Sequence to fold (183 residues):
Amino acid sequence: MRALSHGELTADQLRELEDALRLVPEPRTEGPGAAQSIAHRAFTDSTGAALVLDLARTGDTGWVFALFHTGQQPAASTVEEHRALFRKVIGRLGLSLIQIEPATAADEVLVAGAAADTAESAVAAHWHLPHADLDRVWPHLGLREDAPREVKEVKLRELMGTPAWADAPASLHEQAVAFLRAR
Fold:
């Protein structure tokens, strides 16, 4: 799980953050994102899964909170406890929540801005997916089948706002509208 946030922190606030997450103020030396790591903590959860909690800095005001595991999946309760902890610390320190992956709530979804009409956007200017069934589109939006409905709604509305949506099959348009109305 990974949480992205933005905002300035004083040295005292950074120490408060490290204390709240019980981090060792030393960077990780291996694994994804190690170059930006500034503090971490290794631990084992109730199921015996080996985990690393990491704090990384991106630029002057970007903060990445991550819970890594190798091998055994952590207990769902461990992941949710850390999600709640990340959200609590981000809020308490006045940081802005940008995204949590995987998202479980609408405010954890990163929605591309109006400038998403670029070659780098996830959905290009023309419909290129061979799918006319909404259930087959979710993975292309970065969502699992069991993603929360409110997260699916945000991602679907984002897709519907792209230039590519005009070229999507009519049956998909109908399914999307029905999905959003079913609330």
